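Onboarding guide, step 5: your first structure request.
Type a short instruction followed by the sequence, for example:

Predict the 3D structure of this protein.
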Amino acid sequence: MALADEVQPIGEPQQHQVQVATEGYIRLAESIFDRRLDRVPVLFDLRGQSAGMFKTIGERRLIRYNPWIFGKYFELNLHDTVPHEVAHFVVHEVYPRRGVKPHGPEWQDLMVRFGVDPDVTFNLDLEGVPQRRQSTHRYFCGCQLHEVSTTRHNRAKRGRVRYHCVSCDGSLVYVP
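The system replies with structure tokens like these:
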């Protein structure tokens, strides 16, 4: 039984609306660029604080939506999040892979052509929306203690990145 203040995820009828809107923006992009675009899976499995995400996994591409955030702000997300994520997909397909920033001029121009403000700020009240919480890990730089997310900690542990303090420029060292 759901609590009164707990947000419910969108159901199949609203998911269908989102899929139709996603397809509509892909078709609009096809007319803008005068080229055929692949269709990508649309999933409703995103959790946490993001309303949507365009993701690539190797050659696979997909668009993910957060059904709880859509449940709380359906019309707003239908108008803003859907074209936002479709624009990421289209920019990925149309422009060279290197040198194109996620919210760069190509993406912004496409958002304007979609008739949507190219704003990237998502600042809505997410009370009642289930949140994914990451653990933090303690790192020290020489001047202060830093709390680093599990994602960043794992990247550092694998040697993929090195983090530095913005205050003293010292290397962050893990404190077990």
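Each response can be followed by summary notes, for example: The helical segments are 12-33, 67-72, 74-79, 81-94, 105-113, 150-157.
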